[in-house]
Design goal:
By secondary structure, the chain is mainly α. About 70% of the residues lie in helices and about 0% in strands. It is globular, with a radius of gyration of 25 Å.
Length: about 450
Amino acid sequence: MQTNRLTTQHRLVTGQRLQTASGIGSRIRPPTKVQDGQYTATIYGLLAKQKYEEAKIIIQNQLEQFPNNRAALSILAYCQYMMQDYLGAATSYEKLVRYYPEIEKYRTYHAQSLYKAGLYQECLKVCQTIHSAEYNQRIEKLQAYAEYECDELASTKAHLEKCLSDDPDVLVAQGCVLFKEEKYDEARVKFQQALNFLGYVPQIAYNIALCYYKMKQYPTALKYMQEIIEKGIRDHPELSVGSNTEGMEVRSVGNSQTLKETALVEAFNLKAAIEYVLKNFQAAAEALKDMPPRSEKELDAVTLHNLALLQMETDATAGFSKMKYLLQTPPFPPETFANLLLLYCKHGYYYLAADILVENAHLTFKYLSPDLYDFLQALIEAQTSPEEAFQKFDHLASKHIEVLRKLTKPIQEAQMNRDSEATKKALKEFDEALDAYIPVLMAMAKIYWDIENYAMR
């Protein structure tokens, strides 16, 4: 059965699952200067220094007097986008589209902001209103990204086929599709092609590491992680990697564009996930501690999930609080739902697990496999109807035993053929199947223990 899992950054690149190699954010350009004078010089000076909050305040004061001013609205939208307030940016660009419908770039930026805000259907609707040849390639890619996030892989591929095949953004997107199809080595090749084309890009290096992680080639994945971390430390000492020390107050570096571009958060999360899989729990905790410091309210969902999972042994109350917060604040990592249920059962809170299942029935088929659902139901039912629960566990056990029997054949064949690689692969698959079977067996033994039938246990 599935056990508690430390989630990796399954969004394939920084920020969004299909953020392109060069970054969609970089494609929204600062508005062109429209006049000379101290006011304009001040605003553009702040933009150049990336002081978006200060520029935003000045612009908002200007808009109180002139609410339809194109230059001010455009700068406000740009600041909101660069501050990662994508919903605010979408609202501002929507106003620009309404006031200046003839300017296509505002429609493009509006669609882009909606995508970054996670409003994929709304993004697709706006894309349908953009017909300028100048933005054709860009809109095809944006539609591909939005369709990908909606798990519409056929539509994603259709849009990508209309794009230039040697565009590194397209190579990354194709890699993401292959990744979602669980063709990890083919995805890795696409990401490597994009990396060869662009030079070293941390987000793409992370993609490659994630492919190796999925293929269970952990040493190679860790090698890529170390390169990302070392480059981040070398190029951006201001991000204070490794400065988190117990009992010391450390200044938050925030969720800046620089932090996103380094892929440091993703790298440390993946490093923690690998150490967790290898049962090096202290090393996993250290990996999370070493990432650039941020306040808890600034943490992304993946980091929050991983901190919660590692916190369960020392402070279960805080761990459960984080998990429940994530479940109530989508989007959350796919592992969250299953892990919360498993942890409730592990700590004996079966009634809470039952409540979560009832309250979130719409998540059951999306995030739980049929076997895991049956396992959880049997665990909960064992508290009141142990005989019926035992029958369910017995049925699950029979399925697992059948899988194990089938997996013995490729092991024997590989050994007879003296194929060490095939033997290693087959043994790994057998071990994974055995790991899935043991929790079922243990649950059956617990039922006998609870009724004090120690001989059967």
